[in-house]
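Notebook entry, cofactor series.
This is the third protein in the set we're modelling with a bound small molecule. For this one the ligand is S-adenosylmethionine. I'm keeping the input format identical across the series so the outputs can be compared line by line later. Sequence and SMILES below, as received.
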Amino acid sequence: MQKDAPHIRSFVIRQTRMSDYQRRSFDTLYADYAVPLSREESTREEILAAFPGCDSLVVEIGFGMGEATIELAERLPQTAFLGIEVHKPGVGKLLGELESRSLSNVRVIREDAMVVLEQMIAPAVLDGVHVFFPDPWPKKRHHKRRLVRPGFTAMVGRALRPGAYVYLTTDVREYAEHMLDVIGPDDEFFENPSGGFCKPLPWRPRTAFERKGLARSHEIFEIFLRRRGSETD
Ligand SMILES: C[S@@+](CC[C@H](N)C(=O)[O-])C[C@H]1O[C@@H](n2cnc3c(N)ncnc32)[C@H](O)[C@@H]1O
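Returned structure with ligand:
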């Protein structure tokens, strides 16, 4: 993420058992729903070509089991959702749902989102990025694994069009405050219109991870950022 810094992954691949449904869905549908990205940067037009009828492009980093993805995709049929997730059971689950609901505005990639954003898509192609409840990595020695870390705004900012947004949520206060520190009021790439945490936006679906936090009476923190700059920059 930072030039010359070692790439520290924000995830570990968990050896979770896949249900038969998830495995079958993954094995039979991934090729159909995978977005055709390679190590060469794809342009906005090339990516949108995989989503007929869509005119805006939103990435979701770490969609988990994909419930929020499905809910938004059904509500916003003209928005292309590119879901990035490394956890295979979650990818399988989402693929099965996409097929059973005949949704054509979601595509997935099972890949490290940092690699996708840094290497696979051209600058200034996205209209939004959702990061709903990223792994909190609560132990101090693991903080370096957090997705939102120094360099995060440059990585995401590069991929976003001027005026585009990033929506971050977490139920861990300490991580939420760390996010605000990383972003900072003078961030080169983003402005934070609310100056700190914001109210939940009415369109944001509740996620599986969020429900677990709420069941434990966790407070939810929301950060909504706008990419600085104008189309003519
Ligand atoms: C705590 S879960 C939250 C899942 C979902 N957003 C929710 O709210 O229910 C975080 C997810 O992010 C995924 N993840 C973490 N780092 C990632 C990365 N660099 N690229 C893709 N997925 C990642 C993990 O596999 C995990 O499923």
